[in-house]
Fold this protein.
Amino acid sequence: MADFPLQLGVQEEVGFVSIDASIAELAREQHGLITVDQMRSLGGTRRHLDRRVQGGWLEQVNHRVFRIGGHPRTWESRVLGAVLGAGPDAVASHLTAAALWGLDGFSRRGAVELSVPRGRHHRPDDARCHESTDLDRCKVIARCGIPTTDLPRTLLDLGRFVGAQRLNRVVEDARRSHGLDLTALISTLARHARQGRHGIQRLRAVIDAHADRDQITDSEFEMLVLSLLGERGLPAPTIHHEVWSGGVLVAEIDLAWPHRHVGVELQGQHHRVDSAVWEADQVKLVELQALGWTILPFSWRVYMNRREWMLRRIRGAVMG
């Protein structure tokens, strides 16, 4: 540490040295970085900060972040500095997240990319910031000690910048190197799907290319249809809506718009192989029709091959 003149008195400077030790310990876990708020929480003051900067013990990275003097200036410290400088809930994302996940073809150089909550005014000068309204829909994972979007969300965000073929290769790499399964991708698709959301269409195309009907569960089939409805701007349905009559449960509908008495039944794998399930569905359909419900049944084959026709039928019934 630099030799500082003890203008504040020996006792006060000894206290500062104790604070310095705590700062240095925390900074070691953060690629040599410390935020102003963290320093304050450890007992540091503005005067303490100014003296350490003047003496060269601290270097300013941006208005919120400082680096311990002499600490290596790595790519990781550059990314974390930008994340910390962007404020609470900021995360490394997009191409930077892909590099942190070690995905094939994404290198640790170029502009740092972050995602920040919508309305965040401060933007670090050394980073490209993406405003997001749905950061709460993904997990934040520490990669190299840096808050980063989880792998499925990273792949979704990449869909904005890379073509379908490259995205397909990256998904294959993520499945091979990280054990990513389709369930996680489908769940991410369903949580984020809305009209105009970047990356949705390309990620859906990749999932369709990888989806083997015998491996897709009925719940995953529902999530895929839900994401498609959200992507196309249809009203969100109630999932597994129960219909009662005279105190008796008549049926549970996969997707329903109760105010319109419209429901969608998705005929998954067990409908094909279990005749008892198929017969029970026929009884349920008759009972619901008798109660004034319009039920639209769709199979996996229809979802894959006649998707636009399926959407027109649902839109007409729900919004017609």
Observations:
- The two ends are 73 Å apart (CA to CA).
